[in-house]
Every structure is written in C-alpha cells, then in structure tokens.
Amino acid sequence: MAYRLGVDVGGTFTDLLLINELTGEKHTAKVPSTPEDSSKGVLNGVARICSESGVDPKQIHRVMHGTTVATNAVLTGKGARIALVTTDGYQQVLQVARSYCPGGLGGWVHYVKKPLLAPLELTIGASERIGADGAVVTSLDEEKLLKDLTILKNKGGIEALTICLVNAYVNNEHEQRARTVAENVFGDIPISISSEVVPEMQEYERTETTVVNSYVRPEVSRYVSNLHSALTETMGADMQLSILRSDGGLASARAASESPVNLLMSGPAGGATGAIYFCEQAGYKDILTFDMGGTSTDVALIQNARARVRRETYVGDVKVRAPSVDIRTVGAGGGSIAFVPELTKALRVGPESAGAVPGPACYMKGGEAPTVCDANVVLGYLPSDTQLGGAMEINREASVKAVQTVADAIGIDVMAAAEGIIEIVNEAMFGALRLVSVEQGYDPRDFSLVGFGGAGPLHANALGILTQAWPVIVPPGPGVLCAYGDATTQVQDEASRTYLALATDIDSVQLLVDLLELQNRAAAVLIDDDIPESEHQVTFQADVRYAGQAFQITVDFSEQEFIDAGLSVITDQFDAEHKQLFSFKLEDGHEILMIRAVVKTASTEVAIATGDNKDLTLDDCKLGDTRFYYAKQWHDAVLYDRSKLPAGTTVPGPAIVIEMDSTTLLLPNHEATVDSIGNLLINPMNQE
C-alpha cells in the first residue's frame, strides 16, 4: 500500500491526514502544536497517526507540509543577522522604502518603524552600474568589493548575505560576479541574489523581497533539513518531503530551503486548496472559504475552482513581491479571548488568543480567560461529553466560570454573555468575508460558503445566515482540511521577467518566444527535483494595467489560447477583470508589465472513500439527545455521528454533528444533506 501524509501546523493544533492513494481511506489526527519547535509537534503527530491507524511509517512515501516557520521568523523578528550589498548610492533603499506609514491619514502620528531587516551598518555599496536597458554603464570593481566584504565579515555574526544591484533584473552579470566574490569571502553562508529570487523591476520591492528571503533562509533551511532527516529515519530513504508554497502549490524540500520567501503564507494556503479539492468534485466551483482555527480565521474567494492569487504577500509590516493566495486574516479563533474594557464596558473579542498553552479554560491546562471556545461550550454548541481531537476532554464548569467573569463585568447573565461572544466573533468573520467578496465587486449570494478548521463548522450555519451564501458546505474532515489541501496539491515553480511595453507595440511571435524561454527556466527547477518534463503542466501569466495606472491585474492563459487569439487573450481578460473590480474599462492603452510561466506537475488523483454506510438510517447514526441555547432560548437537539451518515441522508436542525476533528452545529429551521463526496450541505429548510 502507498500512503501520503498531509501535515498542517497551526497556532493551537498540528493536524495530520493520512491517505491511502489507492482506496482513498483516510486517517486523521490532531496533536497540540509545539511553538518552541514545530517539528516536535509534527513528529508527535506522525507517531500518533501511525499508531492509531496501524499503518507502518515505511509505507508513507510522500509528506506534504504547510508550515509557519518563515512567517513566525518575520513576525517575531527572530530571523538571521544579514548583510546587504547594493549599488553604491542606494544603501538607504530599505530605509527610504515607499515613504508610507500604515494606519490611515493619521498613521504618521503613532507609527514606529521597526528596525531594518538588513541594518545600515551591515550594508555596503558596490561600485558598478547597469543601465535600464541592460547595458553596462560602470563595470563592477571586484577588488573594491572584495575589500569591503572582508571588512564586513570581520564585524562578525553575519548569517546570510543579500546582493541586490540596480537594474539587475534586466542584466544579472554583476550580481553573478558579486556572488562569486562573496563566496570566496564568506564561505558557505547562504547568499541570495535578487535576479534569481525576484527578477522584477522596482528597486525597493526587489531589495525587500530578497532581504526577507535571506532573513528567513537559515531558519527554514535548518527546520526543513532536520525534519527531512527525522522523517527519513522513520519512513525510509525514499520518502519525499514537499512544502506548501504561499500560492497553493508545493515546493520540494530543496527548493523551499533556497527560496523560503515563497513560504510566508504556506499554512493558510492549504485550506483553500483543500476546499477546492472537495467542492469542485461536488460541483461547486464558486465558493467563499473560512478557515477558523484556534488563533485566527482565514478567508478567501474561489472563482471557477481557482483561488485568487495576488503578487504581493504581507506579513505584519513587511510586504514582499511573492505570489500568495489572496487570503485575509482576522484575529477571531476558538481561542480568542473575550474581555470587557474598564473604560467602555463594551464586550470585545480578540485578537489576543489563549493559543495552545494555556488554551481555553475548558482545556484544563491552566487557562482561565474566557474564550470563544468556552462560549461554545456554555451554549451547548460544543457538548462537554465530546473530546477535541479525539483525545482532549473539555470541562463545562471551567467554561461557565470563565464566561461568568464577562457576564459580571457587563451585568448580564452568563448565557447572554456567551451568546454575545459568539455574535461578535461571527460579525468579525463576516467582515473579513466582505473584504474578499463585496469590496472586490462580488455578491456573496452568488457563492457557496465553505466552513472548516477546528472551529469553523460550529460557526458555519450562522455565517451562512449573515452572508446568504447557500449552501453552506462542511467538507469531510473539516478540522484537518488544510492537511488535506497539503496532501492533494501539486509541486510547482515559476519564472518571470519584466516586459514594460504597450500591447500595441508588442510582436506576438517574440512574446511567445519569451514565454517559452520562461517555461524552460521554471521547468528546469522541477527537472532538478526528478520530475520529468512529460509530467509538467504550464500556465502563462501577464501583469497588465492601463498606461498611467499605479497597479496591475494578473491574467492567466495557455500557449494554445495565445496562439489562437494572440494578444487579445490578454487584453480582453484584463478588461473584463477591470470592469468587475471598478465598473469600467477602456478601449486601448494596455501596458504589459510582467510576463510569467508557472509550471506544475500533472495532477495525481487520490481516491475519495465513500464509505459503506448506505444501509444505515438516520436513527442508526444518533448518539443521543442534547440541547443548546440559541436566539435567547433553549432548543432540544440531537447528536449525530458524522462517520456513520450515508450519502443522501438529510439531518434536520436543531442538531449537532460530531466527528473526530470538528463539530458541526445545525441551527433551527436549517437542515444538512450528505452528498456523494461526503460534504455536509446546509440549507434553510424548504429551500433547494
């Protein structure tokens, strides 16, 4: 038997999903995350899932992993001590940046700029200059560079080096030579050059992106190397480790170590990928996703079974030129802490989270602050006789005691306080969903809503009411869906170059030649990882704007579409997208800024196990009776075991559907139908 393992490390839990590639049989596990060293949580999870499933680790030949190592290094400021080489006269490029202060019109009043990732005292200028046309204006003074690098090294403590020279995106000759000189001085420390990391125009963005790549590279390389060694020892030498990229594709362990800047949104991207995998097979291609975990909620818009990808990634105050799934994050999770400020006496929820340690009060691990999870327990949405992750017991008395502190601070009863906490966190997630839908020109009612994550299915029905996005879909294994996305996505890489020309001035034949050259560059990375060209799938992209605009839109097309329609396949798509976003389009003035080739492996289908419960009735799936508090009153409800529900079964609300990794709440006057894929489709009663 051949198995693949998906692993997603969250702020509270590490989720694992083990899939039999032939039968689709799956096993899941959740273990507490280990923030001090996330690889420990991964290895703990591997041990548990293999023990519980009875699968020999030697049968697992592929491990796909979403990680937050790179993200955390940036957020916590614990990356490498790095030095920067740029063109003489441009040493302050990171300091000057874009002269932008976040926080609205008054942002400059309270904005405190964080220390530069590459400090000025470790920045030197190389005597050289490449013109905007790629011609050498001033040759690189290698002797001076050698002397300056030696002085730099003698300062000590440098863990990585970045080289970013002006206009290197159009001619990287000087960067290549500078790297050779630096290797002779620094030996084996990681050296990142901008023309390989992000060969695109705009000096600040290119420098910042390459610096961030260097900043997280030692930490990511160390983590990936150690994890690969540990997994190989457990699973055998033929085990393949892949890391999820921010854009939803996979990178080999080698590629991830060399270009970790592409991993900054690795964790959240897995959820969108997993949602697409299940919903597309069920016939739903236009979806809104919300992934509610213990610390935060990530939302995204998926159109025609493709996630929207933006060309820039934000982590805190850092913005890098790297592709990522367009995911918006709000500090609303199961562990978000509720509190009442002394001044306003108004109930607030989040963004501070109880995290994995000490966790919500009901975990009985030392937490005392009231959280969203505790409110769900008090209301009966999360029955106290269930177990989180199949192993962690929850204590209702501890939750009531915690939520009572909020109720006393406001002067209301504990049930009203708990319901208020849930309503506030639901509104916070609704606001995030509006960011990716309404504010992008889309009506949520034209989409289905997909709820997943450990806490997502508890809130999915309520968010369906707020968004009116029906049906609300709860995929199989929603608590480990990010791990499912990791396990079912494809290895990919891309190559790009700046074009900067009006469409009317571009020769279609030459453009195709340039695109195919980029295809060869991107394909070479996959070939280096032993993926033959016969297994490659190629998509071309162009970043387009109207002349004079300060932003661009990315459009996708295939080689055959370009051959058939020429440049109009690019301009027509751009016009349609521009009208969608801004309600107008122009007839001409299309300017192509960047072209790109994205190469990924051919999709390898994994069977979906449909189960053998077709002879069971709804009563056979009943676990017992319960009740929960909703809309200021108690409702009698039924508990059901999701693992027993056969396809075609309709579960009327009020009800609670329980599974190992998550719990789904069905509100009064709503019902859920199990489709052939195993999704729960929640709709208002008497509505198709």
Structure write-up:
The structure is a single chain. The protein contains 18 helices and 37 strands. The protein is of the alpha+beta class and 688 residues long. The protein starts with a strand and ends with a strand. The mean pLDDT is 88.
Helix content: 25-40%
Strand share of the residues?
25-35%
Largest sheet: 9 strands, mixed
List segments where confidence is low: pLDDT < 50 over at least 5 consecutive residues: none
Number of helices: 18
- Alpha-carbon Rg, integer: 26 Å
What best-fitting shape do the alpha-carbon axes yield? globular
**Terminal Cα separation, in Å?**
41 Å
Please give the number of β-strands.
37
Structural class: alpha+beta
Write the layout of secondary structure elements.
Elements: E1 3-9, E2 13-20, E3 26-32, H1 38-53, E4 60-66, H2 69-76, E5 82-87, H3 93-96, H4 107-110, E6 123-126, E7 129-130, E8 136-138, H5 142-154, E9 160-164, H6 173-186, E10 191-193, H7 194-197, H8 203-235, E11 240-244, E12 250-252, H9 253-258, H10 266-281, E13 287-292, E14 297-303, E15 306-307, E16 309-310, E17 313-315, E18 318-320, E19 324-325, E20 327-330, E21 336-339, E22 348-353, H11 372-379, E23 387-388, E24 392-393, H12 396-410, H13 414-436, E25 448-452, H14 456-467, E26 472-474, H15 481-488, E27 492-502, H16 508-528, E28 536-546, E29 553-557, H17 559-565, H18 568-582, E30 590-601, E31 622-630, E32 633-641, E33 650-652, E34 655-658, E35 663-666, E36 670-674, E37 680-684
Parallel strand pairs: 1-4, 4-11, 5-6, 5-9, 9-10, 13-25, 25-26, 32-34
Antiparallel strand pairs: 1-2, 2-3, 7-8, 11-12, 13-14, 14-15, 14-20, 16-19, 17-18, 21-22, 23-24, 26-37, 27-30, 28-29, 28-30, 31-32, 33-36, 34-35, 36-37
